[in-house]
Amino acid sequence: MKLPLALLAAVAAAAFLGPVVLHAAFGLGTDDIDLLNRMSGQSALHPLGTDELGRDVLLRLLEGGRISLVIGIAAAIAAAAIGTAIGLAAGYLGGWTDRVLMRITDGMIALPLLPLLIVLAALDLDKLGVPAALARSDDISLIRIVALAVLIGWTTAARLVRGAALVTRNRDFVRAARSLGAGVPHILWRHILPNVLGPLIVATTLSAGDVILLESVLSFLGLGVQPPLASWGSMLSNAQELVTSAPSLAVYPGLMIFLTVIAFNLLGDALQNRLDPIGRSIAG
Amino acid sequence: MIRFTAARLVDMAAVLALMSFVIYVLIGLMPGDPIDLMRSADPHMTAADVARLKAVYGIDRPLFERYLDWVRATLGGDLGYSRLFGTPVVTALLPRLVNSLALMGASFALAFLCALGLGIAAARRPNSGLDAAINLFCFAGVSVPTFWLALILILVFAAQLGWFPAGGITTAGNADMADRLRHLVLPVATLMLANLGGYTRYVRAAMRDALAQDHIRTARAKGAGEARVVFHHALRTALVPVVTILALSFGGLVSGALVTETMFAYPGMGKLIFDAVMGNDYNLALAGLLLATATTLAANFAADLAYAWLDPRVSYR
Predict the structure, then answer these.
(1) Residue A4, preceding bond cis, omega within 30 degrees?
(2) Is the ipTM of this complex over 0.85?
(3) Is pLDDT of B285 > 50?
(4) How far, in Å, are B253, B255, B284 from residue B288 at the CA level?
């Protein structure tokens, strides 16, 4: 548990503070292009060298990390919140709501998601009725990735919460609360949700890693974070064409994705073991 | 059993029909339409021409009507022409489906066999050094981005060592089997490694559950040899959940194949779908997505049947 937490803390600290420090100390900017100094090797000013436009690789790596982490955590939390609401509705209300929602989550598991996501990422936002001011802004690529990750990510939380709600709703303490006149929101919030909080935190941690992988794949395919914003996936996309002449450009971003995602996965696993030492799996 | 199979088939057809509508709507929401493409190619076109052409091709009609027309044509075997390839969609699609199935089949079979070996080895000695090592390997496997893995393999085995070609499916002018296989090595290795970690975790968990059951103790007490206990008694039990979960993860295999094919310029379905979406080739993208969905659903269907076959306790009314 300590190692993955330390690793994540180190990546986060470097990603959030690193660019500020580098800017203050050396006057480096993320998008500073230095065409006379392209693909240079390691130097005192550029510890990891420069890329094909002479931008500092270390700085872009840290900037990209900030974007990847923010997207990963934001999307994981949003997906957990939406999934929780849907799972509570399905598990507590039961009946048709439950059947429809569970069929949808079953269907999502079975579908080839990446091909469908590629279409979704390529949609024309004007045709969807998104305001032009938003559709043309720089942030739209970030919002789009978070939306896509939430769209496919909510099912895990929904399943977990639904299962817990089904089990808990007829337990004696819930019946007691109901007979004392507690309303549905109170029961859901005070009695059912706390019972599933542990597995929910585990699932959210694991899904943060998945989102970072998804972001990197979409950005790599040119459908995610758009230039000039840096992201690990888009840096790899640029590096792919230069893989024989400047292999290190392709190695660093992938290594960062790998370390961050494995840290999230190990953390989730450690949390799960701590919450559930007997080793029953959360999937039930 | 027959009724169960029939019910699942009806289910599958319903999901496929629903997905075909969703995909049709999504493709319609992509930037530009065929007439926009014509207009960008011909600066002399006027707004009146555009309206007339839209009426001629029926693009101005309601969405649902157009969808029904498309369904009718598709069921009649007419999937339209591909813009990118300049051939009927079926001609572009079928050879690539075969290529993809070869890639996915080989990767799946290898990953499954290796996962069985690793998972059983880890489950037999829980919490040993070997178990911990295999566990870490699994975590690495599920955490590594597939495209980066491909890039590293290309870097090491194609660029540095020169053992295998970096992409494509054959060397120009050389069509023998050995050459084809050499081109398959790196893509298959990528897709296999990308899935091995997850598969091994399933096998390990299922084998640990199976080995902890009472009938295993009974078998041991009767004096059955270790090999018989592990492979006959425990593996048979463990395979039931493993086969189900592996077939359900077929969608992930298709997604992984898309990335792998794109990285290795391997002419398969995944790369075809990606190129079709990027190149505004609507007919091809529609047919490709639908075929990928149908293939995945078919794998899930096979899993249901295998489940019933492997587990005699499962009864289907």
Answers:
(1) no
(2) no
(3) yes
(4) 16, 13, 6
